[in-house]
Write a structure and sequence with these properties.
This protein is α+β, with helices and mostly antiparallel strands. The longest helix is centred in the middle third of the chain and has 23 residues. The two termini are 22 Å apart. It has a single domain, classed as PPM-type phosphatase domain (Phosphatase 2c, domain 1), CATH 3.60.40.10. Strand 4 and strand 5 form a beta hairpin. It has six helices and ten strands; from the N terminus they run E-H-E-E-H-H-H-E-E-E-E-E-E-H-H-E. The relative contact order is 0.21. Strands 1-10-9-6-7 form a five-stranded antiparallel sheet, with helices on one face.
Protein backbone atom coordinates (compact mmCIF):
# COMPACT_ATOMS: atom_id res chain seq x y z
CA UNK A 1 0.00 0.00 0.00
CA UNK A 2 1.30 3.46 -0.96
CA UNK A 3 1.64 5.36 2.38
CA UNK A 4 0.57 8.76 1.04
CA UNK A 5 -2.55 10.86 1.29
CA UNK A 6 -3.48 13.13 -1.59
CA UNK A 7 -5.56 16.27 -2.13
CA UNK A 8 -6.06 18.66 -5.01
CA UNK A 9 -7.90 21.74 -6.10
CA UNK A 10 -8.23 24.47 -8.71
CA UNK A 11 -9.38 28.08 -8.96
CA UNK A 12 -10.28 30.40 -11.81
CA UNK A 13 -7.66 33.13 -12.25
CA UNK A 14 -8.62 36.77 -11.77
CA UNK A 15 -7.61 37.75 -15.31
CA UNK A 16 -9.75 34.96 -16.77
CA UNK A 17 -12.69 35.95 -14.59
CA UNK A 18 -12.44 39.60 -15.67
CA UNK A 19 -12.34 38.52 -19.31
CA UNK A 20 -15.40 36.28 -18.88
CA UNK A 21 -13.36 33.14 -19.47
CA UNK A 22 -13.72 29.83 -17.66
CA UNK A 23 -11.06 27.83 -15.83
CA UNK A 24 -8.85 26.13 -18.42
CA UNK A 25 -6.94 23.95 -15.93
CA UNK A 26 -7.65 20.34 -15.01
CA UNK A 27 -6.39 17.78 -12.52
CA UNK A 28 -6.38 14.04 -12.02
CA UNK A 29 -5.23 11.91 -9.12
CA UNK A 30 -5.84 8.28 -8.36
CA UNK A 31 -4.10 5.41 -6.61
CA UNK A 32 -4.25 1.67 -6.39
CA UNK A 33 -2.40 -0.76 -4.14
CA UNK A 34 0.97 -0.16 -5.81
CA UNK A 35 0.89 3.24 -7.53
CA UNK A 36 -0.26 6.80 -6.93
CA UNK A 37 -0.52 9.15 -9.90
CA UNK A 38 -1.15 12.91 -9.88
CA UNK A 39 -1.43 15.06 -13.01
CA UNK A 40 -2.31 18.72 -13.58
CA UNK A 41 -2.97 20.25 -17.00
CA UNK A 42 -3.09 23.86 -18.13
CA UNK A 43 -5.02 24.69 -21.29
CA UNK A 44 -3.46 27.28 -23.58
CA UNK A 45 -4.98 30.68 -22.82
CA UNK A 46 -5.48 31.54 -26.48
CA UNK A 47 -7.41 28.32 -27.15
CA UNK A 48 -11.16 28.89 -27.30
CA UNK A 49 -11.94 25.64 -25.52
CA UNK A 50 -8.55 24.37 -24.35
CA UNK A 51 -10.05 23.20 -21.06
CA UNK A 52 -11.48 20.29 -23.08
CA UNK A 53 -8.04 19.03 -23.99
CA UNK A 54 -6.72 19.72 -20.49
CA UNK A 55 -9.37 17.51 -18.87
CA UNK A 56 -8.99 14.74 -21.43
CA UNK A 57 -5.21 14.89 -21.40
CA UNK A 58 -4.86 14.79 -17.62
CA UNK A 59 -7.14 11.77 -17.35
CA UNK A 60 -5.76 9.86 -20.33
CA UNK A 61 -2.17 10.30 -19.21
CA UNK A 62 -3.03 9.56 -15.58
CA UNK A 63 -4.86 6.36 -16.38
CA UNK A 64 -2.08 5.17 -18.69
CA UNK A 65 0.50 5.78 -15.95
CA UNK A 66 -1.52 3.71 -13.48
CA UNK A 67 -1.32 0.79 -15.89
CA UNK A 68 2.48 0.86 -15.96
CA UNK A 69 3.11 -2.71 -14.81
CA UNK A 70 6.62 -2.10 -13.52
CA UNK A 71 8.06 -0.33 -16.55
CA UNK A 72 10.95 2.09 -16.07
CA UNK A 73 9.98 5.78 -15.77
CA UNK A 74 11.23 6.48 -19.28
CA UNK A 75 9.31 3.55 -20.76
CA UNK A 76 6.20 4.35 -18.75
CA UNK A 77 6.15 7.99 -19.82
CA UNK A 78 6.68 7.11 -23.47
CA UNK A 79 3.82 4.61 -23.33
CA UNK A 80 1.53 7.10 -21.60
CA UNK A 81 2.27 9.75 -24.22
CA UNK A 82 1.58 7.33 -27.07
CA UNK A 83 -1.62 6.06 -25.43
CA UNK A 84 -2.94 9.59 -24.92
CA UNK A 85 -2.19 10.59 -28.50
CA UNK A 86 -3.79 7.41 -29.83
CA UNK A 87 -6.98 8.23 -27.91
CA UNK A 88 -7.04 11.91 -28.91
CA UNK A 89 -6.30 11.52 -32.62
CA UNK A 90 -9.70 10.04 -33.60
CA UNK A 91 -11.45 12.87 -31.74
CA UNK A 92 -9.40 15.51 -33.51
CA UNK A 93 -10.02 13.88 -36.89
CA UNK A 94 -13.77 13.65 -36.28
CA UNK A 95 -14.10 17.26 -35.11
CA UNK A 96 -12.92 19.03 -38.24
CA UNK A 97 -9.78 20.55 -39.80
CA UNK A 98 -6.91 19.25 -37.68
CA UNK A 99 -4.93 22.44 -37.25
CA UNK A 100 -7.90 24.52 -36.13
CA UNK A 101 -9.28 21.81 -33.83
CA UNK A 102 -5.92 21.32 -32.12
CA UNK A 103 -5.48 25.07 -31.63
CA UNK A 104 -8.98 25.54 -30.22
CA UNK A 105 -9.26 22.41 -28.07
CA UNK A 106 -6.07 20.43 -27.56
CA UNK A 107 -3.18 22.66 -26.52
CA UNK A 108 -2.32 22.01 -22.87
CA UNK A 109 0.72 21.53 -20.66
CA UNK A 110 1.14 18.68 -18.19
CA UNK A 111 2.92 18.30 -14.86
CA UNK A 112 2.67 15.10 -12.89
CA UNK A 113 4.10 12.65 -10.42
CA UNK A 114 4.14 8.89 -10.07
CA UNK A 115 4.71 7.28 -6.67
CA UNK A 116 5.60 3.59 -6.63
CA UNK A 117 6.82 1.49 -3.68
CA UNK A 118 10.47 1.85 -4.63
CA UNK A 119 10.66 5.02 -6.68
CA UNK A 120 8.94 8.40 -7.16
CA UNK A 121 9.37 10.65 -10.17
CA UNK A 122 8.11 14.00 -11.45
CA UNK A 123 7.58 14.72 -15.13
CA UNK A 124 6.54 17.66 -17.30
CA UNK A 125 5.54 18.52 -20.81
CA UNK A 126 5.51 22.30 -20.91
CA UNK A 127 5.61 24.73 -18.01
CA UNK A 128 4.46 24.42 -14.41
CA UNK A 129 5.76 24.01 -10.87
CA UNK A 130 6.56 21.27 -8.40
CA UNK A 131 7.87 21.07 -4.85
CA UNK A 132 9.57 17.95 -3.53
CA UNK A 133 10.06 17.87 0.24
CA UNK A 134 9.52 21.62 0.31
CA UNK A 135 12.11 22.37 -2.38
CA UNK A 136 10.18 24.25 -5.05
CA UNK A 137 11.01 24.58 -8.73
CA UNK A 138 9.34 26.48 -11.55
CA UNK A 139 9.63 25.37 -15.20
CA UNK A 140 9.15 28.16 -17.73
CA UNK A 141 9.79 28.92 -21.40
CA UNK A 142 10.82 32.11 -23.24
CA UNK A 143 7.93 34.41 -24.18
CA UNK A 144 5.55 32.12 -22.28
CA UNK A 145 5.45 29.72 -25.24
CA UNK A 146 5.78 26.17 -23.90
CA UNK A 147 5.52 23.06 -26.05
CA UNK A 148 2.18 21.25 -26.01
CA UNK A 149 1.41 17.57 -26.44
CA UNK A 150 -1.28 18.60 -28.93
CA UNK A 151 1.36 19.73 -31.41
CA UNK A 152 2.08 16.05 -32.03
CA UNK A 153 -1.49 15.72 -33.33
CA UNK A 154 -1.05 18.31 -36.05
CA UNK A 155 2.23 17.40 -37.73
CA UNK A 156 4.41 19.84 -35.82
CA UNK A 157 8.02 20.25 -36.92
CA UNK A 158 9.21 20.70 -33.33
CA UNK A 159 11.85 18.16 -32.23
CA UNK A 160 10.44 14.99 -30.67
CA UNK A 161 12.37 15.77 -27.50
CA UNK A 162 10.18 18.83 -26.91
CA UNK A 163 6.96 16.89 -27.46
CA UNK A 164 7.77 14.12 -25.01
CA UNK A 165 7.65 14.01 -21.23
CA UNK A 166 10.71 15.27 -19.40
CA UNK A 167 11.85 13.67 -16.15
CA UNK A 168 12.41 16.48 -13.64
CA UNK A 169 13.07 14.51 -10.46
CA UNK A 170 13.60 10.85 -9.59
CA UNK A 171 14.11 9.73 -6.00
CA UNK A 172 13.59 6.68 -3.79
CA UNK A 173 10.08 6.75 -2.38
CA UNK A 174 11.44 6.17 1.12
CA UNK A 175 12.96 9.67 0.90
CA UNK A 176 9.73 11.42 -0.09
CA UNK A 177 7.93 13.31 2.66
CA UNK A 178 5.79 15.58 0.52
CA UNK A 179 5.27 16.43 -3.11
CA UNK A 180 3.23 19.11 -4.86
CA UNK A 181 2.63 19.46 -8.61
CA UNK A 182 0.98 22.55 -10.03
CA UNK A 183 0.19 24.50 -13.17
CA UNK A 184 2.17 27.67 -13.83
CA UNK A 185 -0.61 29.70 -12.21
CA UNK A 186 0.59 28.37 -8.85
CA UNK A 187 4.00 30.05 -9.29
CA UNK A 188 3.10 33.15 -7.17
CA UNK A 189 2.52 30.79 -4.23
CA UNK A 190 5.90 29.04 -4.29
CA UNK A 191 7.33 30.98 -1.31
CA UNK A 192 4.38 29.95 0.87
CA UNK A 193 3.49 26.58 -0.64
CA UNK A 194 4.62 24.55 2.38
CA UNK A 195 2.36 26.59 4.67
CA UNK A 196 -0.57 26.43 2.27
CA UNK A 197 -0.59 22.65 2.08
CA UNK A 198 -0.90 21.36 5.64
CA UNK A 199 -2.72 18.53 7.36
CA UNK A 200 -6.13 20.23 7.12
CA UNK A 201 -6.27 20.03 3.33
CA UNK A 202 -6.26 16.24 3.45
CA UNK A 203 -9.36 16.14 5.67
CA UNK A 204 -11.75 17.90 3.27
CA UNK A 205 -11.87 17.29 -0.49
CA UNK A 206 -12.70 20.97 -1.12
CA UNK A 207 -10.01 22.42 1.15
CA UNK A 208 -7.38 23.09 -1.52
CA UNK A 209 -9.87 24.84 -3.79
CA UNK A 210 -11.13 26.95 -0.90
CA UNK A 211 -7.64 28.06 0.05
CA UNK A 212 -6.77 28.93 -3.53
CA UNK A 213 -10.02 30.88 -3.82
CA UNK A 214 -9.23 32.92 -0.71
CA UNK A 215 -5.75 33.74 -1.98
CA UNK A 216 -7.17 34.76 -5.35
CA UNK A 217 -10.11 36.87 -4.16
CA UNK A 218 -8.78 38.51 -1.02
CA UNK A 219 -5.07 38.83 -1.74
CA UNK A 220 -5.01 39.06 -5.51
CA UNK A 221 -2.18 36.55 -5.78
CA UNK A 222 -3.51 34.42 -8.63
CA UNK A 223 -4.10 36.26 -11.91
CA UNK A 224 -3.96 32.99 -13.86
CA UNK A 225 -5.90 29.78 -13.28
CA UNK A 226 -4.13 27.86 -10.52
CA UNK A 227 -4.30 24.12 -9.92
CA UNK A 228 -2.31 21.85 -7.65
CA UNK A 229 -2.24 18.32 -6.30
CA UNK A 230 -0.44 17.68 -3.01
CA UNK A 231 0.86 14.37 -1.65
CA UNK A 232 1.99 13.81 1.92
CA UNK A 233 3.35 10.81 3.73
CA UNK A 234 0.80 9.76 6.30
CA UNK A 235 3.26 9.72 9.16
CA UNK A 236 4.41 13.32 8.55
CA UNK A 237 3.60 16.11 10.99
CA UNK A 238 1.04 18.82 10.59
CA UNK A 239 2.98 20.77 7.95
CA UNK A 240 3.90 19.70 4.44
CA UNK A 241 7.60 20.51 4.24
Amino acid sequence: MIPFEVAGGTVLGRSHALAGRGNQDALFFEKDADTLVAVVADGCGSGVHSEVGAHLGARLVGRALLAGNGASPEELLARARDAALASLLPLVTAMGPTGRVVTDYFLFTLVGAVVRPDETFVFTLGDGVFALNGEARELSYPDNRPPYLGYALSGSTLPDALLGFQLQARVPTRDVRSLVVGTDGVAPLLPQLAGLVDADVFRNPMAVTRRLTVLSRTRGLLPDDATLVALRRRDEGARCS
